[in-house]
């Protein structure tokens, strides 16, 4: 399925324990590839600065369970500004899609500062969309989301199985590029977020491995988890 030429994918999420992570890791390593972005422990750090409208539309729609919604973010890896991605993640019922583009640090800091000047003239639909959201709905920084990702990939259906650990919020700041930014844990009992992403059909020989633990699928939002301190969600 495609919306505006952006492929739609499945994305399944689960809360699991560190013990369940160990079981799944042992099962997945023989049949899936390690993420080439990982370090010697197959891990890398992700920091995202999420944006929301003046009325917190993205947050309210997630809490209300609205089927079609979208979120905007700027993402960096391992606290570096070498790769900076501006992204819009959209949900359409049971499917998700992502539109993204690389941006410079100067442009990232301009957007973070709330300055939309010139975005409408840049030759990328996402930048033009962000301009519209900033000028019409007052899109602005909402929260920083930090975590460590361990990922496994397979070319069949572009399958990705990821384990997101150490979820932390920098809810009092939009200082995306500050590696010393104080952040606070968001999950209890060292919970891990398992995400399974694929195009049309999950590979049959991988499915039993992921299904070997008793975790229940959940509507997990790292964005909402990292903002709950503001509203006691």
Describe the structure.
This protein is α+β, with helices and mostly antiparallel strands and 233 residues long. It is 23% helix and 39% strand. The strands form two sheets. Strands 3-8-7-6-5-9-10-12 form an eight-stranded antiparallel barrel, surrounded by five helices. Strands 1-2 form a two-stranded antiparallel sheet. A hairpin with a 4-residue loop joins strand 9 (140-154) and strand 10. The protein is globular and about 50 Å long. 25% of the residues are buried. The mean pLDDT is 90.
In brief:
With 233 residues, the chain is of the alpha+beta class. It has helices at residues 18-28, 57-64, 105-112, 125-136, 207-210, 222-231, and strands at residues 2-3, 6-7, 9-16, 33-34, 43-52, 68-77, 80-92, 95-102, 140-154, 159-169, 184-185, 192-198. The longest helix has 12 residues, at 125-136.
């Amino acid at each position: 399925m495609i919306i505006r030429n952006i492929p739609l994918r499945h994305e399944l999420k689960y809360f699991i324990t560190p013990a369940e992570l160990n079981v799944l890791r042992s099962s997945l390593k023989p049949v899936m590839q390690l993420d080439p972005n990982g370090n010697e422990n197959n891990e890398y750090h992700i920091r995202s600065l999420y944006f929301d409208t003046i009325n917190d539309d993205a947050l309210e729609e997630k809490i209300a369970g609205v089927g079609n919604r979208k979120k905007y973010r700027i993402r960096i890896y391992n606290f570096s500004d070498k790769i900076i991605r501006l992204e819009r993640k959209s949900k359409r019922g049971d499917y998700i899609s992502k539109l993204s583009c690389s941006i410079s640090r100067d442009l990232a800091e301009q957007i973070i500062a709330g300055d939309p000047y010139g975005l409408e003239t840049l030759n990328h639909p996402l930048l033009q969309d962000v301009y519209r959201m900033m000028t019409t709905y007052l899109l602005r920084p909402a929260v920083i989301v930090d975590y460590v990702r361990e990922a496994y990939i397979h070319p069949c259906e572009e399958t990705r199985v990821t384990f997101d650990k150490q979820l932390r919020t920098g809810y009092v700041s939009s200082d995306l590029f500050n590696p010393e930014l104080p952040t606070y844990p968001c999950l209890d009992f060292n919970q891990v977020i398992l995400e399974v992403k694929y195009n049309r059909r999950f590979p049959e020989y991988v499915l039993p491995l992921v299904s070997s633990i008793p975790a229940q699928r959940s509507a997990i939002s790292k964005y909402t988890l990292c903002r709950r301190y503001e509203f006691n969600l």
